[in-house]
Structures are given as structure tokens and as C-alpha cells.
Amino acid sequence: MRKKPATVRIARWSATHPWSAIGLWVVFVALCLFLGGAAGANKISDEESGVGESGRAGRITASGHFLEKPEENVLISAANGGKLDVATARKAAEELAGKMKALPEVESVGTAFPSPDGKALLLPVTMKGDTENADTRVQPLLDASAATEKAHEGIRIDQIGTGSTAQGLGETLGEDFKKAELISLPLTLLILLVVFGAVIAAGVPVLLAMSCVGAAIGLSTLASHVLPETSAVSNVILLMGMAVGVDYSLFYLKREREERHKGASHLHAIEIAAETSGHTVVVSGTTVVVSMAGLYLAQEATFASLATGSIIVVAVAVLASLTVLPALLAKLGRWVDRPKVPLLWRLTMRSDESRLWPVLLRPALVRPVLTLVVSVGALLALALPALDMKLKQPGSDDLSRDIPVVQAMDRLTSAFPSKGTVHQVAVRAPAEKADEVETALKTLLSRTEGQELFAHDRTPTIRASADKRVHTVAVGTPHSPKSDGARKSLELLRAWVPEAIAPVQDAEGAVGGKVAQGVDFTGHLEDRMPWVVGFILLLTFATMVVIFRSLAVALSAILLNLLSAAASFGALVAVFQNTWAEGLLDFHSSGAVVSWLPLFLFVVLFGLSMDYHVFVVSRIREAALDGANVRDAVRDGITRSAGVVTSAAIVMVAVFAVFGTLSMVEFKQLGVGLAAAILLDAVVIRIFVLPALMTALGRWNWWPGNLDSARRGRHATGSDETRQLRLPPPVPAGATQYGQRPSYGQGSGYGQEFGGQEQSSSREQAYAPRQHHQSYAQEDPYGPPQGWTQQEQQGHDGRPDLHQR
Questions:
Q1: Beta-bridge partner residues of 78
Q2: Cβ distance 598 to 670 under 8 Å?
Q3: Cα separation of 638 and 617, whole Å?
Q4: d(Cα 76, Cα 159) in Å, to the nearest integer?
Q5: Which of 88, 333, 433, 620 meets the CB 3.0–4.6 Å disulfide criterion with 637?
Q6: Whole-angstrom distance, CA of residue 378 vs CA of residue 458
Q7: Phi-psi bin for 224: left (phi > 0), alpha (psi -120 to 50), beta?
């Protein structure tokens, strides 16, 4: 008998040593959280994240080692937004300045000065300490501002700055994610309750997924000291971890439960699930990991961080499914199906073939060419808006205007445009050229005077580093970051800076800032995207060829994935570049898609869709190897896989869609984009496009392979070396009594252990039914408990006989 696969050996050890496996997993998760918390996160700096000229500007500025202090801007305006009582405002400013100076958190307080229109006063305040944790030290300043506002009727005091803005947005986002958790967890549990009909079975995948997320966040924090992380990585880990963690557990638990209810003992059911669904989890997880690795080819710090976080959480989810999940199932035993929900339990235990899926598949099977043309045409029509996709970096103009700190920012930039959109000019030259550099920058600033593209409420201040080698100046524009005016002002500055510093020998200059970063990042993506997309397509093609030995299946997988990706991009553009969905999803359209999202979405979609594609096509090929014609194989393969794949897709869509309710536009777009992609892939592609294409191709599906030779090899050995997910073969005619099931044959590794014959030269011998309950009960302590009825012990197997059909 051949050696069992590693997934089976690991599962058997875990199932026979459940407390050891569970204890090791708990220690692993706790250790990851502890070490991650102790190490702290290493965030991406502007120097590390920038690309193009804006990245160069960031590196020039960083080389000056400027001492950055957290700054707060206190805006005093009329409470009703009208004319300001200047005397009252100045009195309030003097009083507030005195309170601020007395605070230990404050280093200095400037002099209040009026806005150009006279409707506001601005009081600048500089805090002590660094900018990293200013949000934790700003509360006394906010309290002083609130007390002063309360003491002076008719005025409004807003505080916007390094600490106050971070605190205001942090509170909003914190509430967002709490809301997302409160919605997503019960929703996932409800879906799984419908799938399993039992409370504990529904809770196991969610509990396991949450532990995977916790461990992955800790490991990601440790990894950030090698590859710095972006602030969004923990949210991506939560999204990906809940989706794949639940899905992988669902595949495994469904198969274990299926085998147990057909009569296998708990241990043997776990082993079968480990060799079939466990293998699928490994293939799927590996595919997602390698797909996400394609993001490293983007050569950009944010993508590298997102790739690292995603790879870690998927790897942890695979590890959990292969190790601790078998231990939990073995320890729970029959209690995994308790407490039962009566109606749902009966529905999940139905033994008859579903009537819904054959009806849904009928158009694709009866008229494959027509169905293919119509469904592909519909997806292409949905993809059309993607041709007009515009990309931009997220900024303050993308935030919800319902957030108080965002409203305060709008009032500040309206009164003082130089505090809004700002271009950062950086120049580096030898120290002895410092005077020449300052003269050049003053000449540059003089060219901005009188230009409507630039702000004139304050004269920009030129800063010099301690060693006089680096000079910077912030040039404001009254236009919002997403506007054409902001881009035109950037283009002018980038044309003027080289002209201004040309007389200075050995001088290097660049223009950065939020607008510049968005422009450069988008251009960088356009250059790197062909490399990343090419890597993913090549990987997908190679994976499918190795699994199915078929160029036709590999090519169709690429084409279908490209089709679903294009359709999801079209839906994303239609929703977020227009205004019709603003009220529905509570966002403010910027007229563009977040620049990093399409590439990230493409990579994630290809990784996850391979999960479903391998699962479904494997079932179809299995039915074809059992002797069914193409139409019957497609119908049988999709029908048998429909329950698991649909359940997994619904869980993913639900988790992703919850992220569409968050305030940050990038998470809205990420959630809606992924939900749309998975929905299209699981419904349109799987119900219409895939079956229609495979039915139309017929025997060409397996080109250049020969299915007949594969059948002969299968009949001779009782195994299919190429299948990824193996169900028990169809029950031969006459094998209908309880307790009988077909042999897996020698190739499966279960032939001798289950009492089956090792080799057969005919189908009847290879799949000879046998009685196995007694042997299970004798050799396995996890066998059916005493007192169970025959139906409880043996379950139902209502799958149709392909050979009689």
C-alpha cells in the first residue's frame, strides 16, 4: 500500500492527539499576538513609499533630517458661518492662547492672524514630542478649545492638525470596524447555520478564522521590521482572513460530515477529508500565496506590504485547516452536529438530488453556444465602463463629509487655502550654495504671485536643514487634490523648479506632495502592471496545466478569470466614478477609482477564483472519468459541487460587502469590488459560461490529453492521479443497502484499510461495495457511538448512478 499523503498523516496525528494539537495552536496564536505587540509595527515612511519625482522629493527632504513637530491649527469663526465679530474672536484667541501655553503638551503658541476675507482667525500651536503619537496627547488641547468656545457665545472653534485630525479619523474608523465586526460575524454565523443546520458546526469555521486573523496580524507586525507595513494591512488581513479562513474550514468540515453520514467513523472521515478537501485547501492556498507574490513585482512599498499581509493570513488559514481543525472535529465527535436547528437540519440532510441546479444549468447544457454568446455578451457589456477607468490616490476629498473633523478641515481650507492642497518643493545642494538656493526658491515663489492656480493667503516659508544642504518650501493651491487646477499647478511647478535652480551648481530639486504622489503612483502602476498581470496569467496557466494535463482547460481558466475581472472592474467604475450610488453607499464620488485597487483586486480575484475553478472542473473531470458523456459530466460535476461552492461564495460576498459600509472610500471600493467579482464568478461564470463552454468544447476540453487513456489507467489502478478533489465513485447497480459503499481502490490509499480489493481490471472489481461499519467500530475509538440508530450511523447517499443514467 502506498504511503498516505502528508495532509492525511498530519490530520491523523491531530485527530488521535486532539488536546496536543489544540494546545499547540492556542500557544501559536498567543505567541504571535504577544511578539507582534511587543515588537510594534514599523510603518512605511514617505521616503520608502514614494515613487517617481514625488518619491525623490521625499528622499531629499528626509536627508535633511528636519525636526518635525506636531502642529495644530485653531480656527475661530462665526458659529452661523456668517460675519465674524472680530473683537469677540480676538478676545477668545487671547484667552485660548493663554490656556494653551499653560499646557505641558504645548511647546509654543503663535499669534492669531485673520483670513483674507476677514471671516476667520487662525491661531497656530506647536506641540511637544514627535508626530507619531500626537493623537494620544492632543486631548488637553481639544478640551481647552471646547471650553473657550463654550465661554464665548456666537463663535465656533475648530481644531485641525497632526494630532486632532488623526484622533478624529481614528475614532470614526474604529467605530466603522466595530460596526463591520458586529455585522459580519453574526451574518457569517447565520449563513453557516443555514449550511450546516447545527450551531457548533457553524461556529467552528468562524472561531478558526478569527484565530487565524489574530495570529496573522501578530506575524505581520513582526514582518514589518523587514518590509514596512501600510496602515491598511490589518484591514486587508481581517477581510482576507475571514473570507479564506471560513471557506477552507467549510470545505473540510463539509467533506468530513459527508463521509461520516455515509457511515465512516470520525477518524476515517477526517482522513478522507484530509486527502480530498485538505488537498484542495493546499492547492488553493498555494495558488493565492503565489498570486499575491506577484504584487512584489510592482516594486512599491504599499503593494509589498499588502502582499505580505495577505500571504501570511492565507498561509495561517491553510495551516489551521490542516492541523487544528481535524483535532477539533475529532474531539467534538458527534457533538459537532449539535444543537440541531430542526428545519435547517432536515434540509441539509436531504438525500435526493437538487432540483434547482439542473434547471439553472439547462440552458447551458441544451443550447451551449447560444448561452455562451449571451452570457459572455452580458459580461462584456458590464465591463464596458472599465474602459473609462480613472485612477487617483485617496485623499481628504474622498472622506465622508459627515465626519466632524472633515467638516472642520473644509472650513479651514476655505478660509486659508494654503492649509489645504500643498505641493512640497525640495532642493538639495552643497552647503556653500545655501544662499544661492534660497535666492532661487524666492525667484520661484515670485513666479507664483498673481497666479490663480496658487494660494496667496500667506507667504510660504523656506526651511533650511541644520547642515544647510537641504531647503524645502510648501506651495499651496486653492484647488482640491482631485481637480484639474491642482494638477495644472503641479505641472507648472515641475516646469519652473528646474529653471529656478539651473544656475546653482550641483543642485537637485523635485516637487512632491499628495497631488504629486497620486500622479506618480498612477504612472508607476501603468509601467509595472504588465509585469504583474503577465506573472499571474503565466502562473494560472501553469497551475491548470499541471492539475488537469490540459491546455484547453488552462486557456479557458485564464479567459474566464479575465472576463470576470473585467466585469467587476466595470461594475466598480459604474458605481464609484459616478454619483448615482452616493446615497445608497454613503460616499462622496471623487470621479475616480483608488489607484492601488485594480491591481490588488486583480491579483486577489485570480487567486480566489482558482479555488472555485479547480473545485468545479475537478468534479466535472471525475464524472467524465467515470464514463459519463460531456453533458452529463458537466451537469453532475457542477450539481455535486454546487452546495459547497455556493456556500463558500455567499460567505465571501457577505464578508466583502460589509466592508462597503465603511467610511473610507478605499475600503468601500475594495469591499464592493471583491463582492461583485466573487458573485459574478460564482453565479454567472459557474452557472452559464463555464458549463456552456465545456459542453460546446466536448472532447476538446481535455486537449491535448486523451481521456480514454486516463480512464484505462484509472480502471487498472482504482485511482485518478490527476484529480484534486475525489468523491467516492458512483454506487454500482445493486449496491443500495445501508452500510455498503464502493471501494476507493488501491490508488486512494484506503483500499486495504477499508477492506477493498487492491487492484481490479474491471469497473465492478475496482468499485466493489463492501460492508465496513463493523471494522470501523472495532479499529477506531471514534466510531459511531452506542445507541445511534442505523440511519444516524450511516446517513444517506442519494447520489445518482452515472452508469444507469
A1: 155
A2: no
A3: 8
A4: 9
A5: 620
A6: 55
A7: alpha
Q: Which DSSP string do the residues of 52-104 spell out, in sequence order?
A: HHHHHHHHHHHHTT-----EEEEEEEETTSS---HHHHHHHHHHHHHHHHTST
Q: Which pLDDT does position 10 carry in this prediction?
A: 92
Picking from 250, 246, 256, 278, the residue whose alpha carbon sits closest to that of residue 329 is: 256
Task: Report in angstroms the alpha-carbon separations of 467 from 55, 63, 335.
Answer: 22, 10, 72
CB 794 within 8 A of CB 260: no
Query: Would you say the C-alpha torsion 758, 761, 765, 767 has a positive or negative sign?
Result: positive
Cβ-based neighbour number of residue 438 at 10 Å: 16
Which of 316-325, 400-409, 477-486, 634-643 reaches the highest mean pLDDT? 316-325
* The residue count for the chain: 805
Rounded mean pLDDT, 257-270: 83
- Amino acid of residue 570: G
Instruction: Report the pLDDT averaged over residues 785-803.
Output: 39
671, amino acid identity: G
Return the percentage of the chain with pLDDT > 70, whole number.
85
- Say how many C-beta atoms besides its own lie within 10 A of residue 735's C-beta: 16
Q: How far is CA 42 from the centre of its chain?
A: 21
Whole-number Cα distances in Å, 433 to 268, 436, 461, 469, 503: 79, 5, 19, 8, 11
| 214 and 29 Cβ atoms separated by less than 8 Å | yes
pLDDT (mean) for 536-560: 84
pLDDT at position 658 over 80:
yes
CA distances from 791 to 40, 351, 367, 780, 788 (A): 55, 12, 41, 20, 8
Give the strand pairing for 593-594 and 391-392.
parallel
User: Tell me, what amino acid is at 532?
Assistant: V
From CA 515, how far away is CA 525, in angstroms rounded?
Answer: 16
> Which of the four pLDDT bands, split at 50, 70 and 90, describes residue 333?
confident
Residue type, 407: Q
Give the C-alpha separation, 18 to 790, whole Å: 27
Please give the grid coordinates belonging to residue 605. 480575484
C-alpha grid cell for residue 204?
467552528
Cα(189)–Cα(341) distance, integer angstroms = 13
- Whether the per-residue pLDDT at 75 is higher than 90: the answer is yes
Give the relative orientation of helices 434-448 and 484-501 as an angle to the nearest 10 degrees.
140
Locate 86 and state its grid cell. 472680530
Name the phi and psi angles at 223, rounded to 5: -65, -25
> Cα–Cα distance between 1 and 515 in angstroms, integer?
66
Distance (Å, whole) CA 110 – CA 26: 54
Strand partners, 428: 470, 508
Per-residue pLDDT band for 747 (boundaries 50, 70, 90) equals very low
Residue of higher predicted confidence among 95 and 168:
95
Q: Is it the case that residue 736 has pLDDT exceeding 80?
A: no
Q: Rounded to 5 degrees, what angle do the CA atoms 375, 381, 385 make?
A: 145
Which of 471, 490, 308, 473 has the alpha carbon at shortest distance from 393? 490
Whole-angstrom distance between the N-terminal and C-terminal Cα of the chain?
A: 34
- Residue of higher predicted confidence among 800 and 576: 576
Burial class of residue 505 (count of CB atoms within 10 Å of its CB; 0-12, 13-18, 19+): exposed
If you search the block for the grid coordinates 464665548, which residue do you land on?
152
Q: 172: which residues sit within 8 A by CB, 6+ positions away?
A: 400, 403, 405, 663
Q: What are phi and psi of 169, to 5 degrees?
A: -70, -35
**For position 36, what pLDDT does the model report?**
92
